[in-house]
């Protein structure tokens, strides 16, 4: 354990379960904060307040203390609270007095040494344990199925309450409002415990000792040492065996392999470039490269003064433009936006995009589109 963070935390389990030595490597690198992380923290704080208030707790409104509070955050936390209370009502159908816990600290040391975490919401009723996780992030769509973080939360909750409740089924729910994503996965108590013993425990033992094999994959995006990891470099440089001179010299299988790794490869290259720039700015020299001043655009030193000068000269310095859909939604709030403008909104057909078979969107049918035309 390091500070307030567990070495083998649920939030990083997708990484250390796949690449066990990465846990120790990441623990040696200091955490860095970001505006996105603080925004997520603020959203969680607001969600906690609203759910506890809806449950009848006496709680203080934290809104004035939030750095990134806006109309979108207010709307998202409202919908989350409504969803949680719906789940509570569902639980009451089978249990007159279900236990509802908000921001519940959980201990996983029964399976993972010195590991702990905090679940956003847990609903315990006879027969069913429900774990809900609020995700405010917009970049990555999070699924509940086979989600190791959610499974660890479920194990922690099971450890607390299985002796008090006859739990047979575990429901894990990801609530990600900014992606319109509610993902639900169910697993039996026996299946969850089997996963813990066969998958979680062995990997945790290796990770805690810095042992095991390095493994590259999608989980690398969360790693602090991803820019300098040799295994990740080897994984991506396998693509260098292809000349890329004439596309039709590649077989269909080879093209599929390249497509499968393209985003990962591009991400790796960008991570290396970012790391190299940061190091060079700090004084490190890379053979054949130097730091120069990048291009920049002209800008006003004082917008208000510029506006006043141009207005005095008899000109209108401002241009008027209708807000985009996202900005207008933030201005009005989602409910008022839907009431006023839903009949004036259309969603044009998107351009064809090549994605893996695992993508949940329906396959594009060019014949059907021709028929529409």
Please characterize this protein's 3D structure.
This protein has helices at residues 13-16, 22-27, 35-54, 71-92, 148-161, 189-208, 230-237, 252-281, 303-312, 325-332, 334-341, 366-372; strands at 99-107, 116-125, 127-134, 167-176, 181-188. By secondary structure, the chain is α+β, with helices and mostly antiparallel strands. Among the domains are: 10-208, Lambda Exonuclease, Chain A (Alpha-Beta Complex), CATH 3.90.320; 226-281, no CATH class. It starts with 12 loop residues before the first helix and ends with a helix.
- State which percent range the strand residues make up: 5-15%
CATH topology of the domain at 10-208: Lambda Exonuclease, Chain A
Mean pLDDT, all residues: 88
Overall structural class, as computed from helix and strand content, comes to alpha+beta
Distance between the termini: 61 Å
Name a few traits of the molecule.
373 residues; alpha+beta; Lambda Exonuclease, Chain A; 5-stranded mixed β-sheet
Record the SSE blueprint.
Blueprint: H1 13-16, H2 22-27, H3 35-54, H4 71-92, E1 99-107, E2 116-125, E3 127-134, H5 148-161, E4 167-176, E5 181-188, H6 189-208, H7 230-237, H8 252-281, H9 303-312, H10 325-332, H11 334-341, H12 366-372
Parallel strand pairs: 3-4
Antiparallel strand pairs: 1-2, 2-3, 4-5
Helix pairs in contact: 3-4, 5-6, 7-8, 10-11
